[in-house]
Amino acid sequence: MATHVTRAGLGLALGLWATTVCAGEWSGYAALAYTGYMHAPLYADQARSDFSAALQPEYRHRRENSKDEFTFIPFVRLDQQDAERSHGDIRELAWVKVGEAYEWRVGVRKVFWGVAESQHLVNIINQTDLVENIDAEAKLGQPMVNFAAIRSWGTLDVFILPYFRERTFPGRDGRLRTELVVDTDQATYESSRGRRHVDYALRWSKSFSGVDIGVSRFYGTSRDPRLLLGSNGAGTPVLAPRYDLIHQTGVDVALTAGSWLWKLEAIHRSGPGAGYTASTAGFEYTFSNIFNSTVDLGVLAEYLYDERGDTATTPFQDDIFAGLRLAFNDAQGSELLLGAIQDRRSHARFFNVEASRRLGSLWKLSLQARAFTHIPVNDLLFGMRQDDYIQVELARYF
Question: What pTM, to 2 d.p., does this model score?
Answer without folding.
Answer: 0.91
